[in-house]
Amino acid sequence: MDRMPTMDRKNSKILFLDLDDTLLNHNKEITEGNRTAIQEAVKAGHRIVLASGRPLLAVLPIAAELKLQGEGTYVLAYNGAEIYDCFRKKVLYRNPVTTATAAELFQEAHRYGIHVQTYNHDDIFLAEAEDEATLYYAKRIRIPYQIVEDLEHHLPENPVKVLLIDLHDHEKLEQFRLDHQESLASRCCMFYSNPMFLECVAPDCSKGAAIHQVAELFDLPMENTIAAGDSENDLSMIREAGIGCAMANGTKTCKEAADYVTKADCDHDGIAEIIHKFLLN
């Protein structure tokens, strides 16, 4: 990947932000306090990088809303499986699961009675039925979906992510993970983005790995990076960043891993708190 012009290695920082229940409040909105703080951070010479488990198509509108589209602006989608250059409008990096692994995940999810879906190369999510989980997910992230019967046998080649959803029984998802994490360890990694969503990505894929790549693009040391999140899929970047921040509404594990836990939650300008403490002080 091409490097950007070198930033001020002493003073400039990169802030990586998870979206759901971190930057976005529980209504999936950016609070005015967070929006203003982000604008001030960018004006001061810092970089803001959105880092989400969402597909790219569901991240880009938020980047546009924040005017994060200039040269040297990136987003991380699919838990770091894609790195996208918002200025050049192209994917710089993609790390998919294999078609065979995706097919096995579908087969096993069917056996457990768990809703399972994936994504085509246009970021439209593919499901097998217009059921409660499909409609919930479509409303939550606001992207199109396509119903494909017998999707296990009509998978896109090397999809970037497989997602298992159970809106009512977290224990069923956890049992699935416990039963398969050893046999699938060399082929995929599984973690939660919230208690209802079990994310399945390539084995070496994580937000933590992706933030290293972005720091290298700017020729900045990791000590100049800050990451904020709330859930298990954020753990890797919270641990890898120079300063890892957990939201007040985050999981216990995230808070234990973090260098800093916000006093404000995602509904009350928690990201603005981080920006004022670590970027604008």
TrEMBL record:
<dbReference type="InterPro" id="IPR000150">
    <property type="entry name" value="Cof"/>
</dbReference>
<dbReference type="GO" id="GO:0000287">
    <property type="term" value="F:magnesium ion binding"/>
</dbReference>
<dbReference type="GO" id="GO:0005829">
    <property type="term" value="C:cytosol"/>
</dbReference>
<dbReference type="InterPro" id="IPR023214">
    <property type="entry name" value="HAD_sf"/>
</dbReference>
<dbReference type="Pfam" id="PF08282">
    <property type="entry name" value="Hydrolase_3"/>
</dbReference>
<dbReference type="InterPro" id="IPR036412">
    <property type="entry name" value="HAD-like_sf"/>
</dbReference>
<dbReference type="InterPro" id="IPR006379">
    <property type="entry name" value="HAD-SF_hydro_IIB"/>
</dbReference>
<protein>
    <submittedName>
        <fullName>HAD family phosphatase</fullName>
    </submittedName>
</protein>
<dbReference type="GO" id="GO:0016791">
    <property type="term" value="F:phosphatase activity"/>
</dbReference>
